[in-house]
Specification:
With 71 residues, the chain is of the alpha+beta class. Helix content is 31%, strand content 20%. The chain has two helices and three strands, in the order αβββα. Strands 1-2-3 form a three-stranded antiparallel sheet, with helices on one face.
């Protein structure tokens, strides 16, 4: 478990844990999480919403960041 406030959905929490294991920094905002790539790169930011409307949202977030060079 990381140091962020727990996500309300299981898939969302698994996604945040995946970010954390790859060194991304996680901050909680009012309606979303902001994840920033490791400090070695520092150029990429991704938001993870608390209540996404797309059922594949978490999978799409993960596949997007896996294509980045800092992943």
């Amino acid at each position: 478990m990381g140091y962020w406030q727990k996500h309300t959905e299981k898939m969302g929490e698994e996604l945040l844990l995946e970010f954390h294991t790859h060194g991304w920094r996680i901050t909680r905002k009012k309606r979303y999480y902001k994840v920033l790539c490791p400090e070695s790169c520092g150029m990429h930011i991704k938001t993870v919403h608390l209540s996404p409307s797309d059922p594949n949202y978490y999978r799409n977030c993960l596949s997007f960041v896996q294509k980045l060079p800092c992943w």
